Amino acid sequence: FAPQPINQWEPQFNHHEQSSEDIWAACCVVTKQVVQGIDVNQIRGLGFDATCSLVVLDKQFRPLPVNHEGDAHRNIIMWLDHRAVSQVRRINETKHSVLQFVGGVMSVEMQAPKLLWLKENLRETCWDKAGHFFDLPDFLSWKATGVTARSLCSLVCKWTYSAEKGWDDSFWKMIGLEDFVADNYNKIGNQVLPPGASLGNGLTPEAAKDLGLPAGIAVAASLIDAHAGGLGVIGADVRGYGLACEGQPVTSRLAVICGTSSCHMGISKDPIFVPGVWGPYFSAMVPGFWLNEGGQSVTGKLIDHMVQGHAAFPELQAKATARCQSVYAYLNSHLDLIKKAQPVGFLTVDLHVWPDFHGNRSPLADLTLKGMVTGLKLSQDLDDLAILYLATVQAIAFGTRLIIEAMEAGGHSISTLFLCGGLSKNPLFVQMHADITGMPVVLSQEVESVLVGAAILGACASGDFASVQEAMARMSKVGKVVFPRLEDKRYYDKKYQVFLKLVEHQKEYVAIMKG
């Protein structure tokens, strides 16, 4: 495992951009680092995952600008970009039947509104010159193999493609993007493969040189990062841990991939339609199963925002540095210090947070919602910061509970959470999710479960496993199980009622101001 930073630009509020050249270069640096000291001829397969960001290239596969500045280096509209608010509102007003498969309401973070924004705002510098629009995972697999085939995962989850019926011409014509229909979807993908399928002749000589790997290694059709995380955790053998999901079908498990944002992945044998929750998507994560995907647009990013914006943050930084700890490890120990005899979660009895600072993705599907904090006092010391941090973590867990309740009301039956991603390394975050949902949390032996998911794809492409399911069962391992503290249930049930009241009040305020 080797990290490598990648550049990100925010030229104006809600516009978030990256560079595909920069990201490929980072992949090359990292790959060369992780293969040092090993026999590269032992590497049999390569799998890619990435965020569901939109990459724009011209007909010669050169980057095109997605910005008013005309900077072609910045050719990616990031997943969290919210520039296409007007476009997504118009798309949702069509009430087209494809919207049934995204919870009834399309998100501004999906690709159709972003494509429409490019056509309406950057016609000459970008749209008219464009030859290829890729989801970032598909861009990476193309870069490695020269094959423009798209992954079923990306197209089904973010582009309105149907695994059974293909593209719906009437949708693209209705929203003003009939251009794609006219050229037989060549620019957005007319060859679609299931995740884990082997692409072309494997790694091209040019890509092999860039990555420091032998040419011809099998390369798999990709997955979106959250879906790779789901694949990496959801199939683990849980025998011997005393979990309700032992002996139950895999459909009783919910994978929660929590980093900058959080994604909640539940699968079912038959399609389940949940208002405000994306899907059902057939075979988009686990082949043969339908996927529903709940989500919270900002989670890790929200925690950073709340902590770093507090007056006591410089003091926190100094004290954490002196102890050689992360600020969050320091905050967790500080909470233990100030809780006295009560459970740590009870410190927020008077402080409540509504976490939708970047709108609500699921299950309310309302990008106009804002964040709320109630119960603030004049104090701004370290205790005050620690309790605000705790209340924010709890709010994210309450948001997960709200998503689970919506999924269960729709027909899912969930008994166990499987967490992975950066936030799953935070014991407070994990314990709060167990306590607030009332469900045990399974943590993977390999914390970077998203990478396990990508490795599962590579192992399928190379033929080492006959199916994704077999690879999941063999490559996913349980690391730790965290059980809910059921004695605290009554307290969290009451806090949850307050949590739900916050959004009711917000809607009332908005109605008053509009009236």
TrEMBL record:
A single cellular component GO annotation: cytoplasm
Pfam families to which the protein is assigned, alphabetical: FGGY_C (PF02782), FGGY_N (PF00370)
Biological-process GO terms, alphabetical: pentose metabolic process
Record-linked InterPro entries: ATPase_NBD, Carb_kinase_FGGY, FGGY_C, FGGY_N, FGGY_RbtK-like
GO molecular function, one term: D-ribulokinase activity
The enzyme's E.C. designation: 2.7.1.47
Function per UniProt: Postulated to function in a metabolite repair mechanism by preventing toxic accumulation of free D-ribulose formed by non-specific phosphatase activities. Alternatively, may play a role in regulating D-ribulose 5-phosphate recycling in the pentose phosphate pathway. Can phosphorylate ribitol with low efficiency.
NCBIfam families: 5C_CHO_kinase
Name of the protein in question: FGGY carbohydrate kinase domain-containing protein
